[in-house]
């Protein structure tokens, strides 16, 4: 008997040193079972299974011990009368975030992490964060399966801690969903309202950003061009994700479309990507005499743009069409949208203009000013072209 308790003690200290080492828990379980402490042994087997769900040998042992237990459990994890203090929340911590497991998943190498923690690690390299086993195949299939048993163990024995953990998660999600305060900013290219913007996402920080925009359900983020001094420009365009295609290695192609313009009020950072406090830009509406003038200007610049596009060479035209779609038709009411007519943005994306010039026009909240600026560019490109 003395030897048994010594074995239990040894295994216990081993578990203390390496709490996530399944073998240590298995040794402890065996020692406890041999010492006749079946209830405690079963708890340790639960731990083993939670850490390594597909460990058949342990499952069989657990079933054997289960039959000998003082409490009558109907299923493997049905020990409803187990003392809660046998399970410490410290044993159920994710080694990546040091918090209680949230949506735990087990890797093929038998390690358990929160789903989101594991995903963030795999953004950087495809190895298990603990044992460094290559997880490329696992990543490719995206077969992250939640370890239901672990969830059950958490719910049953650490209900309060789990509820607290859930609350923290929900607060984080709420914070991430706020599209005014700390809007994620993708620093890459010029984007315009109503114009499609396909993105190839490979940088870890942007993988995280895209995933979050999908998880929170906002499916939106800001797009700005880079700025040498500030990091990114003072104006940008919100993009709405229409579709995401993931490649086996974790890269993705994201199909987005511009929705609204914004002005950056302050710059920030979050988990490696840029964020900004923003204010949405809306065109100032005009009335009466001014509106009559505006419609006249609108119609004439539209015709000018249309004839410029018609005059382009066929191969140039088809290139533009395949990238940006058809030249949008004229709006009956040029002030209908807070961004103004779509054709202006289409033209701005298509015309051979530098980013800085595009940005100046993007920032304008007067449709009249925007039309005048576009007309100036049209005159310039029409003159420049050799006849
Ligand atoms: Zn975690
Ligand atoms: Zn591993």
Structural class: alpha+beta
Write down the overall mean pLDDT.
86
Reported for the largest beta sheet, the result is: 5 strands, mixed, barrel
CATH superfamily of the largest domain: Zinc/RING finger domain, C3HC4 (zinc finger)
Order of helices and strands: HHHHEEHHHHEEHEEEEEEHHHHH
Straight-line N-to-C gap: 102 Å
- Gyration radius (Cα, Å) is 30 Å
- Kindly state the percentage of residues in helix: 40-55%
Low-confidence spans: 70-84
Which fold name corresponds to the CATH topology of the largest domain? Answer: Herpes Virus-1
Number of strand segments = 10
Q: What small molecules are bound in this structure?
A: zinc ion
Please give the CATH class of the largest domain.
Alpha Beta
Q: Count of DSSP helices?
A: 14
Spell out the blueprint of helices and strands.
Layout: H1 2-17, H2 22-34, H3 38-51, H4 56-68, E1 104-106, E2 112-114, H5 115-124, H6 136-141, H7 148-157, H8 159-177, E3 183-187, E4 196-201, H9 204-216, E5 220-224, E6 226-227, E7 231-232, E8 235-246, E9 252-270, E10 273-281, H10 288-310, H11 314-324, H12 342-350, H13 355-363, H14 367-384
This protein binds zinc ion (2 copies).
Labels describing this entry:
14 helices, Archaeosine Trna-guanine Transglycosylase, Chain: A, domain 4, elongated, zinc-finger, 387 residues, two-stranded antiparallel sheet, binds zinc ion, metal-binding, Herpes Virus-1, 3 domains, zinc, alpha+beta, TPR-like_helical_dom_sf, single chain, five-stranded mixed beta barrel
């Amino acid at each position: 008997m003395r030897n048994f308790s010594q074995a239990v003690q040894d295994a216990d200290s081993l578990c203390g040193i390496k709490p996530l080492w399944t073998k240590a828990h298995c040794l402890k379980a065996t020692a406890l079972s041999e010492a006749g402490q079946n209830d405690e042994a079963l708890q340790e087997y639960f731990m083993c299974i939670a850490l390594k769900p597909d460990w058949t040998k342990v499952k069989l042992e657990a079933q054997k011990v289960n039959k000998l237990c003082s409490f009558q459990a109907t299923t493997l994890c049905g020990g409803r009368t187990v003392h809660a203090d046998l399970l410490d929340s410290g044993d159920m911590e994710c080694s990546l975030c040091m918090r209680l497991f949230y949506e735990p998943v087990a890797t093929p190498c038998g390690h358990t992490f929160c789903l989101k923690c594991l995903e963030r690690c795999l953004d950087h390299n495809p190895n298990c964060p603990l044992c460094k086993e290559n997880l490329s195949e696992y990543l490719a299939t995206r077969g992250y399966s939640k370890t239901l048993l672990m969830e059950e163990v958490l719910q049953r024995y650490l209900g309060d801690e789990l509820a607290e953990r859930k609350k923290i998660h929900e607060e984080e999600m709420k914070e991430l969903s706020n599209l005014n305060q700390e809007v994620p900013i993708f620093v890459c290219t010029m984007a315009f309202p109503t114009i499609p913007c396909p993105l190839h996402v490979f940088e870890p920080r942007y993988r995280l950003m895209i995933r979050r925009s999908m998880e929170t359900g906002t499916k939106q983020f800001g797009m700005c061009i880079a700025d040498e001094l500030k990091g990114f420009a003072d104006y940008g365009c919100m993009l709405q994700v229409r579709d995401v295609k993931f490649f086996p290695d974790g890269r993705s192609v994201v199909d987005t479309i511009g929705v609204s313009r914004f002005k950056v009020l302050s710059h920030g950072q979050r988990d490696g990507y840029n964020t900004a406090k923003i204010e949405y830009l809306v065109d100032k509406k005009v009335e009466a005499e001014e509106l009559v003038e505006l419609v006249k200007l609108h119609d004439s610049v539209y015709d000018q743009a249309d004839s410029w596009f018609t005059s382009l060479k066929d191969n140039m035209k088809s290139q533009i069409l395949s990238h940006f779609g058809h030249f949008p038709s004229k709006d009956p009411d040029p002030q209908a949208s807070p961004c103004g007519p779509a054709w202006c943005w289409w033209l701005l994306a298509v015309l051979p203009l530098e980013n800085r010039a595009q940005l100046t026009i993007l920032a304008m909240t007067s449709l009249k000013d925007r039309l005048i600026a576009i007309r100036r560019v049209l005159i310039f490109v029409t003159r420049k072209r050799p006849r």
